[in-house]
Amino acid sequence: MAGRAACDAPPFSLFSIMTMQIPSQSPDSRTVLASTLRSLLRDDGGQDLLEYAFLAAFIGVAGWVALNAIGPNLLATYNAWIDPNTGTPSLWDPCYLTSTGCVGGGS
Known about the structure:
The chain is mainly alpha-helical. It has helices at 14-18, 29-42, 47-82, 88-91; strands at 96-98, 101-103.
């Protein structure tokens, strides 16, 4: 039964292969961090995306500042337009319909 000794070992299954502990030579975590930082500093693949993000942020902030600056002037102008004594409503002279046609009213 000498030929049988090789068959006495349990067969490998997928589970036994997946759970097998394989010794590895893992590098020091500082070495991995340093190499990752070096590669990030050398790589410029996302540079254009970052530039577009800065441009969008600048446009947003500039728009916000501009709207805050013109807001009070816009409100004052709108209030002057709707003032019934001096604004646009004071210029409107309605036409009153009578049996003979339109009486009163501006041009």
